[in-house]
Amino acid sequence: MSDEIYEHITFDSKKHVSFLSANPDWSDQVLIANSVSKAYAMTDWRIGYGAGPAPLIKAMTKVQSQISSGACSVAQAAATAALNGPQNSVTLFKSAFEARRNLVVERIKGIDGLTLAPPDGAFYAYINCEHFIGAATEESIALEDDTAFTAYILSEAKVAAVPGSAYDLSPFFRISAACSEDVLNIALDRIAAALSKLARKGNTS
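and the corresponding structure tokens:
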């Protein structure tokens, strides 16, 4: 299954290449999953779609018919309008997300102990927090892993993040860059302040 939901949100002039475009001989083995949620900011409309071998789609349709009465007609009409209508909004969203990506990358450079490889697309940042694993809080509680790290910044900085271990990417943590630049700056200020209070291994200052 090829999840191509972020096909329109790519940065640095990179272009999305569909899995089947690169591997056309696999058309009888691949299911492409997509949605209007990300590119068209229609998350709450709950419209997704798939393209794949006819027998698989038929089986999926049968299963879907037993667990849902189907997407409402208004949501289907809205998705059709989004997919077939002018794509100006997609370009605007992409530019906004790239600007926010750039902001996060630059701000992380200024926080000692965190590193971030610039994301090529989507609107998340997986930030390496390895230098803080084993660090101690002001209450002398050791941050044993990225889960403890995200719990700390939630408690101390009031910033919600997801531990990388949830995606088998430890020791990283994930933040969303889908909010405004003002909110991102506030969040990163809070994270920096919270991390400055930690005593890292080999550093007793």
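(Above: one complete record from the training split.) The CA atoms of residues 179 and 196 lie 24 Å apart.
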